[in-house]
Amino acid sequence: MEIMERIKQQIEGAPIVLYMKGTPQFPQCGFSSHVVQALAACDAEFTDINVLADPEIRENLPRYANWPTFPQLYIDGELVGGCDIVMELYQRGELKTMVEAAGKG
Amino acid sequence: MQLQNQIIHKLSNALTPVHLEVVNESGNHNVPAGSESHFKVTLVADVFEGDSLVKRHQRLYQVLAEELKSGVHALAMHLYTPAEWREKEGAAPLSPPCMGGEKG
C-alpha cells in the first residue's frame, strides 16, 4: 500500500492516535513521554504507533500534516499538535474535553 | 551560537515578533557539549491572531524548514498573540525585539 494511504488509514482508524518515539511503557523521548502522561491523566484510550520501529512512517509522516517532529497527536483524524500544544491544552483543561468527545463526532 | 543566531534572525524577519526568546537547551540532552540540537522558542506576534495552535506552529516550521532538516532535532515552541502574552505575563511591558546588532 502506498505510504500516505497507510498513514491516512492509521490516523482515521481510531479516535485517538499518537505517533511517538518508543512506547507508552518505554518512551524513548521526553516529549513523547510528556504527551503519554497528559493523555493518561485524562483517562484517554489511544492507539500508539512507535515511529522508531517503522522507519517508513517516521520518514513520511512529517509530510502528511506539514509537521516535521514527533510526537504527533491526532484526534478524530485531525492533527492536534506536538508536545507543546498538547501540554498547553492539558493545562487549560481542554485536552480532557477533546479526549472525551473523541469518536463521538 | 551560529545556529541560534540564524534562528533568531529568520524568525525576526519572517514574523516581526514583539517578543522573541530562543534558548539553546541542548545541554539538557544526551548530545556533545556545544551542540545546537534542542531549542526552545518563545515568540509573541500579531500574526498569530486568529490562528489555531497548529497553524502557529506550522508557520514556524515553515520558516525554519532548513534548520530542522540540518541539525535541529527538537524545537519547543510557546507562541502567543500580544493579548495572550499580557494575560499570561501580567502588565509588564514587552521588550523590543532584537534588531540584529552584535554584542561588543
Regarding CATH, which class of chain A?
Alpha Beta
- CATH top level assignment of chain B: Alpha Beta
Overall pLDDT score of chain B: 87
Chain pair sharing the greatest interface: A-B, 14 and 13 residues
CATH superfamily of chain A: Glutaredoxin
Cα shape of chain B: globular
Keywords:
heterodimer; A: alpha+beta; Glutaredoxin; 4 strands; globular; B: 104 residues; alpha+beta; GMP Synthetase, Chain A, domain 3; 3-stranded mixed sheet; 4 helices; 37% helix
Can I get a quick summary?
Chain A is α+β, with helices and mostly antiparallel strands. Chain A has helices at 3-12, 30-41, 55-64, 83-92, 94-101, and strands at residues 16-20, 47-50, 72-75, 78-81.
Provide the fold topology.
The complex is a heterodimer of chains A (105) and B (104).
Chain A: H1 3-12, E1 16-20, H2 30-41, E2 47-50, H3 55-64, E3 72-75, E4 78-81, H4 83-92, H5 94-101
Parallel strand pairs in A: 1-2
Antiparallel strand pairs in A: 1-3, 3-4
Helix pairs in contact in A: 1-3, 2-4
Chain B: H1 2-15, E1 19-24, E2 38-44, H2 53-63, H3 65-69, E3 74-80, H4 82-89
Question: Could you please describe the fold and organization of this structure?
Answer:
The complex is a heterodimer of chains A (105) and B (104). The model of chain A has no long low-confidence stretch (mean pLDDT 95). The N and C termini of chain A lie far apart (28 Å). By secondary structure, chain A is α+β, with helices and mostly antiparallel strands. Helices cover 48% and strands 16% of the residues of chain A. Chain A has a 4-stranded mixed sheet with strand order 2-1-3-4, with helices on both faces. Chain A has one domain (3-101): Glutaredoxin, CATH 3.40.30. Chain A has 5 helices and 4 strands. The radius of gyration of chain A is 13 Å and the shape is globular. Chain B is α+β, with helices and mostly antiparallel strands and 104 residues long. Chain B has a single domain, classed as BolA-like (GMP Synthetase, Chain A, domain 3), CATH 3.30.300. In chain B, strands 1-2-3 form a 3-stranded mixed sheet. The two termini of chain B are 15 Å apart. The model of chain B has no long low-confidence stretch (mean pLDDT 87).
